[in-house]
Amino acid sequence: MNEKTVMVSNDYDRVDGRNAYQSNIKRLTLGAPMLEENIKMQIAAQIWKIDKDGELILAEELPIHQVFDLMIFLSRTLLYFKEAYRLPLLYDPEKPTVERVGVQGGVLPVEVCIDNQNINEDIKAFTQSLNELGELIGERQRVLSRILEELECY
Fold this sequence. Notes:
The chain has helices at residues 64-83, 119-132, 134-152, and strands at 5-10, 25-31, 44-50, 56-63, 97-103, 106-111. It is of the alpha+beta class and 154 residues long.
């Protein structure tokens, strides 16, 4: 494990969504980056899993700002799909941009991927999957919402 780890969440395999109690992801950590490509960042999030020999290894690492960017992207996508049923194709082919979220003096575009040749079928499958994952996603949304509200107080 990274000797610069500050926060740890052990036993993640017990709450890893539909993989709970069967996941090989065992630990989440926050601390100084371990990977060379993230060395310019002060904080990174790491995902640790058990390899075939039973050893704990670093599986993924994201700089902390990318974790937030993913949450912004995901949250905006979830909001979009709450209303997408109103559109015949679940999107407007003439206006694929959902939102342009301002961050860091630029924009984080959230768009339907019209470059996907199978977008009409894939977006329906995606929407169905979101519905099927509603319980897992909803619980985490409520927890995250509560925590973000607490952060607003500081």
